[in-house]
Specification:
The chain is an alpha/beta fold. The protein is 39% helix and 16% strand.
């Protein structure tokens, strides 16, 4: 049975890739995006162009923080599921422009929760982030760990989304599932992410900035793996955990229809190895500008995927050698270099 699904952030990296896959399987997709200029708008337009004209797809330009616009959207449609990927992204940018995170990630998310509540949406899935683990050092990061020490406003806003979603699950029986994304990469990726920045700089013979003197580890996750996991989660409606107890509360489940999952690769990679593979794919060495750790950054991320594997059979399958090669081929083709 085809579903009618709202995808917010449809011109974004993950959002556009998700829309493609949902349409491929016959779902009706309404995509929304505010098309802001946080990064190159022409890239967002090019991602949207892959969707425009496809049967079952319609696009509405609206900001999730626009209360009346969102109320109109929910009044005009009856969605089976909502996938919220619209957000002000980026850890470092949150040090410069904190208000944009409150507007999009808090006010905007409230508008989505209200829309889902009042129109009886069957499942709200939303993007959280691995950044919520903040000052945690116990690896791999587990959704059952306490995450009360964010180290950026971006992370704090994502933790707030998880708390807000739980409240709506509890009060209004709205099934909600939060996905803590770990570093996503691949074709059509974001220009503010390391792989994009490194590729551009190396091809232009400019040095790349390598933070924490290269001693970073990231759970790099390929876009196709992420999208496969997201679709499985959308179809797996959150349910109450009958074993849940307030005496020893589990942060990833609830008596309400509420779930949290990590969605990553379960295989952290040293940043220097990531750069090595990129150099091999480009056939060119990088000039490295070694720098200290940046405020708001964490030295390592590593996802415990046990819950997601158990509940939806999620198994990421793309090694960085293949994923980076695919990105480089896309980059050369898209930018004609």
């Amino acid at each position: 049975m085809s579903k009618k699904i709202l995808v917010t952030g449809a011109a974004g990296f993950i959002g556009s890739a998700l829309c493609v896959r949902l349409l491929d399987r016959g779902d009706i997709v309404v995509g929304i995006d505010n098309m802001n200029d946080y990064y190159d708008v022409t890239l967002k337009e090019a991602r949207l162009a892959r969707l425009t004209g496809r049967q079952g797809f319609s696009f509405v330009k609206v900001d999730i923080a626009d209360r009346s616009g969102m109320e109109r959207l929910f009044a005009e449609h009856s969605f089976d599921a909502v996938m919220n990927l619209a957000a002000q992204a980026g850890v470092r940018y949150s040090l410069i422009n904190p208000y944009s995170y409150i507007e999009s990630n808090i006010m905007g998310f409230t508008n989505i929760l209200e829309g889902c509540r009042h129109t009886k949406v069957k499942h709200l899935v939303y993007a959280s982030s691995s950044s919520v683990y903040g000052a945690n050092t116990e690896m791999p990061f587990s959704v059952h760990h306490n995450v009360d020490h964010p180290v950026s406003l971006y992370a704090a806003s994502k933790k707030a989304n998880e708390l807000m979603a739980h409240t709506y699950s509890h009060l209004f029986n709205l099934p909600t599932t939060g996905l803590r994304f770990f570093t996503v990469y691949g074709p059509w990726g974001r220009p503010d992410m390391a792989l994009f920045l490194f590729t551009k700089a190396i091809l232009e013979d400019r040095p790349i900035d390598v933070f924490n003197n290269g001693k970073m580890q990231r759970d790099f996750t390929y876009i196709d793996d992420i999208v496969e996991g997201v679709i499985r989660v959308i179809d797996n409606i959150a349910e109450p955990n009958p074993e849940w107890s307030g005496d020893s509360p589990d942060s990833a489940t609830s008596r309400a229809p509420y779930r949290l999952y990590n969605i990553g690769n379960n295989s952290p990679v040293e940043l220097m190895r990531y750069i090595e593979v990129l150099e091999e794919c480009l056939g060119k060495k990088a000039q490295k500008n070694m720098l200290p750790m940046q405020p708001g950054d964490v030295p390592a991320t590593y996802a415990d995927l046990d819950d997601l594997t158990r509940d939806v059979g999620f198994k990421p399958a793309t090694p960085i050698e293949k994923g980076i090669k695919n990105f480089v081929e896309w980059y050369r083709g898209y930018y004609k270099v």
